[in-house]
Amino acid sequence: MPSALPRLAVTPGEPAGVGPELIAHLAASPLAADFVVIADRELLLDAAGATGLLLALEDDDGKPRRHRAPGSMRIRHVPLASAARPGHPDPANAGYVLSTLRQAADGCMDGSFAGVVTGPVQKATINDAGIAFSGHTEFFAERAACEVVMMLASPELKVTLATTHLPLSAVPAAITETLLERVLRIVDRALRERFGLDHPRIAVLGLNPHAGEAGHLGREEIERIEPLLARLRAEGMALLGPIPADTAFVPAQRASYDAVLAMYHDQALPVLKSEAFDRTVNITLGLPFIRTSVDHGTALDLAGSGRANPASLIAAASMALDLAHRGRVRA
């Protein structure tokens, strides 16, 4: 008899964006997961109508299932505060969005779910409601009371970030040995525990052009990055660098590492997104559960049209499913 399917929570994100429509495409996919969508039932059914796909929603009873019929999902109904209009976010629904995230996170931590897959949220709308919100990553980190690192992964490349949404002018001061050590330890542990790599190799990019050119183009590499890498190498971590960012992604270099640590957001992500935008997945490392997400926004201009591309959500769900199976094997 086949074993029970991994239970993955799914949150559609902003109700006025494309997330609800993408749910119908995810349900229609052949992925062998027990998807439990946490959302407003009528919102999802209306959005599915825009896609021309049938969506069958069954109340979640928490019991294991060994098969999921195409086009079906289980649901934990969370009612909207205000009727959603595609393309027009309403701050009145900010509490609804956060409630779906809380239920997903808490369900992961109590063992109800093997992980969570998140659709895109509209951060500005949540903040317009008077609720301080900087993003999924920070929300889940606070909920789980742990430190996390953002990873963007495609089938060809895994990129992690030392700093995320900072002005470029603030990045040099933020790059400290303390920060880099914390990030590298989280990434190394996640590559071992989540991705099953016994001896992960991490390429660390320099902050400055040419990795500082021996101090002529900046001293952060000499004074902060290189000493930290030497200390962690002495502990057994396989760290390459600091490597100049302009040569780090050429094919000859990629064969020498399993993941990249970039110093700031736009240092590496343009490379990744230009190669695999629809296949790139946002993964939060360091959480006590699996969390993956689409690597795009709410696409308000497409909401309600039925034309949104589901590839990134399906890729995120596939990655979560793969990580969940790895966890079963290790257990």
Description:
The chain contains eleven helices and twelve strands. The chain has a twelve-stranded mixed β-sheet. The longest helix has 20 residues, at 311-330. It is globular, with a radius of gyration of 20 Å. It has two domains: 1-146 and 287-331, 3-Layer(aba) Sandwich (Isopropylmalate Dehydrogenase); 147-284, 3-Layer(aba) Sandwich (Isopropylmalate Dehydrogenase). The model has no long low-confidence stretch (mean pLDDT 94). It is an alpha/beta fold and 331 residues long.
Which of globular, elongated, flat, extended, rod-shaped describes the shape?
Answer: globular
CATH C-level label of the largest domain: Alpha Beta
CATH architecture of the largest domain: 3-Layer(aba) Sandwich
The total domain count is: 2
The number of distinct β-strands equals 12
Structural class: alpha/beta
Quaternary structure: single chain
Summarize the structure.
This protein is of the alpha/beta class and 331 residues long.
What is the secondary structure topology, with strand pairs?
Blueprint: E1 7-11, H1 19-28, E2 34-39, H2 41-51, E3 56-59, E4 72-77, H3 94-109, E5 115-118, H4 123-128, H5 136-144, E6 149-153, E7 158-161, H6 171-174, H7 177-193, E8 201-205, H8 220-234, E9 238-243, H9 251-254, E10 259-262, H10 265-276, E11 281-285, E12 290-293, H11 311-330
Parallel strand pairs: 1-2, 1-5, 2-4, 3-4, 5-12, 7-10, 8-9, 8-10
Antiparallel strand pairs: 6-7, 6-11, 11-12
Helix pairs in contact: 1-2, 3-5
